[in-house]
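Appendix B, example 12.
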Amino acid sequence: MKKTTVAFLLTCSSLIWTPPTFASNSETLTLNYGVISSKAKKRIKDSYPLFSYVAKQLNHLGYSDAKINVYPTIDELVSALQRGEVDIVSSTIYPALIVKRRAQAEPFLVRWKKGEESYNSVFVTHKKNEYNDLSQLQGKVIGFEDRASTSGYFLPMVTLLSHGLEVQQLTSLQSKPDADKVGYFFFDDMLRETNEVNMTMWTAKGMVDAIAYSSSNWNNPKDTPAALKQQLHTFAHTNDYPRSIMSISHLLDPVVATQLKAILLELDQSPIGLEVLESYQETKKFSVLNNQANDLLYEAEQLLTKFDAHQ
């Protein structure tokens, strides 16, 4: 029996997978989905079933299948959107604001990723510190996950800034901030592998005064093991924000965009829809951006300029 080979095209900017195509008498369209990730094969595997299904629901508009485009950086995703190579994007708040600003990709749905409509970031410290206010971080050091993280950097940073606190980036663990400033560093600059377990371990051992990450990580024993959590406590948190945002390219035909939105909103109403949602990182459903979500997006967008000054 002749075996069919599925080819992966690896470029310096992205990993793109196109399923096998077959000859057709008429040209068909492909729905292009874009996502930022360092785990390209995993994102392709968990995203393709849903977007392939959705594309087939757009058959009456000429669509036949989907293509999953995985980009390692926000800059490469923005470039792809500007070139018209991506139709729809899933991301957290920070990348959603960036692609809106630089590529005119508009937020249009909330994705309930891992069953969550919204989440926040929590500030965590060792119990012995007895912090109960963000101002107590002045003269102290907080560790952030990485520069691209929404919950592990963007949200906590804009919260510090909105409280009127001055921040100071540290270049080494031996450095100390000025007494009236909050010092910060990035774990991915210090560790070969950055994850929430390492972050909580550093906090439990007193190697850093505080950390910040998502409430989902704090509540997940895989990310915050019980033995470490017993030594820690949360002393502040950010506002709640949508867990994940679906943004749509301004270059996509408005008729297609309207149909696409309707299909995504109805997925949780059928057995096959629920099945492809589950495969898509345990997504519960999609919902419209209500007034509260739009207000939070606007608030975050206003803070983006102040945040950019510290990049």
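The mean pLDDT is 89. The first strand starts at residue 8 and ends at 10.
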